[in-house]
Amino acid sequence: MENRQKIEVVNDSFPIPELPISLEMFDNLLAKGWRLLGDEFVRHSVVPGKNGYDLTVPLRVRLADGIRFSKSQRQLLAKNSSRFRCEINRIRLSEEKFQLFQLHAQRFAGDPNQPKFWDFLNECSDEFPVPGLEFDLFDGSRLVACSFLHLGSLGISATYCFHDPEYHKHSLGIYSMLLEILYGVHTGRQFYYPGYAYAVPSRMDYKKNFYNLEQYDWRTLHWWPAERNFRQ
Question: Which of the residues 118, 131, 141, 156 has an alpha carbon 20 to 30 A from that of 24?
Fold first, then answer.
């Protein structure tokens, strides 16, 4: 997909409803390029870049045909599973998680787009607008990473992940994605939505390092197979 292709610029958002929506409606929004962030659904086809605007690329991993991990992903699963304990629960916000997020956010100090906790979650993210889960990773009794997932009937959507910078070498963000994919397969979902990447190389390219990857085409409004990024 060319970065400068001519497309209609999409930059839409709307607040989440006051009542929960159906899992099927959530699936429909995900399939049309929408993403749940905090108190809003958003979708945008371009973002400001170094040389104008860069094309965003919504991604999803097709789970219905079975799961296939690369050798390095299988090794990461085996290594981290032997060290870290994972607990899966409905989203439960706490001071411990806020503090862990602040440690994580220090990586982006000085960035005008430095993430804020409420950019991704709301106070009722466990049930609004759809059920939300958290994957908590522990090293012994120490909480070292949290990732958040929202549930559709056919798909699951990764909301955000943050981790203790001291554990950077363990690739806990990617490890959390692998656990989420496994959860999707084990619960019979067809799609895993990891969010957006970009048509140009960026620090979001780790999201492209999966088999059975698909990308959303803003011109045709359809999903098409995408090549796995072997550089990550």
Answer: 118
